[in-house]
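Support reply, case 0932

Customer input (verbatim):
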Amino acid sequence: MALGIYFMHGGFTPEKYAQAISRLEAAGQGSPQGRTYHFALESDGSIQVFDVWESHEEFHAFGEVLMPILTELGVELGEPMVATVHNVILP
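Our regenerated output:
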């Protein structure tokens, strides 16, 4: 069953988001296995991320690459909200 994961990290500016994406791509994780959707939402100069993942295992494997990058960028890491995807409606 798919997982919806919502991240609200402190100090995650659009510039730091762009740097994180660039570093993930350089690490071969720009489109990681198991992530089916990625949304970057901007509000008041801060980026929040909502992803849909196929499994906890794939999400955790990606996190092993992502978290050191965010730490190096000075992003204040928060615990993500994780929930089972109940329904998806596409146009």
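We compared this against your earlier run and they match. Two observations from our side: The helical segments are 14-26, 56-72. The first helix runs from residue 14 to 26. Please reopen the case if you see a mismatch on your end.
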